[in-house]
């Protein structure tokens, strides 16, 4: 082989290795089973990152917890984190009961 066409040492083996990796990757993708059917369902159920989809936010510097479903803000995050969640549970129950009554009065 003429000196002008010689490859640096190891170049051919690097090229061959990269081709081999590519073919392994392609055959590996073919041999994998299809994604489970529940994967798409779970993906659709997760929040898409839209801020309007928030359920509850916690602001530790301001000691605040806000439940965005009902618009309730409490400045007792420390109590909430200790397990004293009764106030939010009561507010949620009251809110959903009021909605159910309104829906019942509209439907009847």
Could you spell the SSE succession in H and E letters? HHEEEHH
Proportion of beta-strand residues: 5-15%
Mean pLDDT: 77
Backbone structural class: mainly alpha
Question: Which descriptor suits the 3D outline?
Answer: elongated
Q: Over all CA atoms, what is the radius of gyration?
A: 30 Å
Stretches where pLDDT is under 50 for at least 5 consecutive residues are none
Report how far apart the termini are: 93 Å
Task: List the topology elements.
Elements: H1 11-31, H2 37-45, E1 56-59, E2 64-67, E3 72-74, H3 77-81, H4 86-107
Summary of the model, kept short:
With about 110 residues, the protein is mainly alpha-helical.
Description:
This protein has 108 residues and is mainly α. The protein has a domain at 54-107. It is 53% helix and 10% strand. The chain has a 3-stranded antiparallel beta sheet. The mean pLDDT is 77.
Using brief descriptors, characterize the structure shown.
108 residues, mainly alpha, 3-stranded antiparallel beta sheet, 3 strands
């Amino acid at each position: 082989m003429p000196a002008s066409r010689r490859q640096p040492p190891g170049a051919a083996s690097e090229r061959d290795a990269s081709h081999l990796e590519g073919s392994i990757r392609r055959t590996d993708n073919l041999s994998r089973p299809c994604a489970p059917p529940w994967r798409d369902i779970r993906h659709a159920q997760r929040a898409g990152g839209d801020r309007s989809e928030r359920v509850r936010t916690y602001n530790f510097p301001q000691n605040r917890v806000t439940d965005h479903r009902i618009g309730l803000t409490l400045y007792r995050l420390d109590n909430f984190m200790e397990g004293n969640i009764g106030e939010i549970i009561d507010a949620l129950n009251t809110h959903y009961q009021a909605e159910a009554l309104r829906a019942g009065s509209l439907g009847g």
